[in-house]
């Protein structure tokens, strides 16, 4: 009895492992990756310009389908290609009746990418609080790291001891502005590779939003008023030389805001159908415009805005996603389901696809083969019917398990 139970367990284990690795190697062999297009906006021709990735290479076209060479792209996107044009002496003196200053062009150019794995990832809850106004004008990694539990605690990385003086000072400063411990989320940009530091933004136990900085070794804590009905899910902090905004805020209902430097104003971006678990978001901009591209499986929508973030126009494009290609259609007949150890995030999780009933055709053929093999061996008993049922339901995965693990001798 124990031997039979062990066999069933090993077959199930084979099915589980097969559902992970057989589709994986199938896609390695047959997948033709199609990268999402990159959308720009040209102030010269006043149209969207798209960079397309194909199996035959890379090409540019505008929204009407007209194609452009690399040199033509330099001309119609002068603000994004200002370095090349300036080096060749071809940078225009003015654009849209505005005199062009290369330094202002550089400061106003913007590219931000937010992917699901940038939002959902395991995190060590210890953060460095930089000195925001260093005396030598250069950011240095501090020796103390903080966490916010029942209070704000600083741990000295040299001794692994709590710095009680700093902990009490910052805890008191947070309480004075109405912070309720513990923190739900802490958002910052813990790197010295940035022009300046704006500290951290923190969601407290009540869902309220706060800004914490270290200025000349003195705590600076401010309460940030949220728009009515908005709760913060995630914030990406981006210190940019232009100092237009602190970062990108995503709310619990998947609205997207820029938290502006001006009085902590929440500037809502006019986009829809954004799901941070499945979509990528790219924010780009130049001296005159900003645009946001939201990309999901096989679909992208781009929203063009002026510098006051008013919607001007949109552009949509779709393409065949993985399971719409020939290899994808075949895979739905070969594999009744697939298992991945992570989805689009950095968390290692077990993710099942939906069951594909069309695979029952191929499963039935495999089950018939097992039936014939059993009949030839004259062992058509109850446990043989269990094998046939497993193959019918799990297809190729169960078929391999049944063939590898024969029935024990009576």
UniProtKB/TrEMBL annotation:
Keywords noted in UniProt: Membrane, Transmembrane, Transmembrane helix
Domain of life of the organism encoding this protein: Bacteria
Transmembrane intervals: 7-27, 355-375, 384-405
InterPro entries: DUF4857
Pfam families for this protein: DUF4857 (PF16149)
Name of the protein in question: DUF4857 domain-containing protein
Natural source organism: Caldithrix abyssi
Taxonomic path: Bacteria, Pseudomonadati, Calditrichota, Calditrichia, Calditrichales
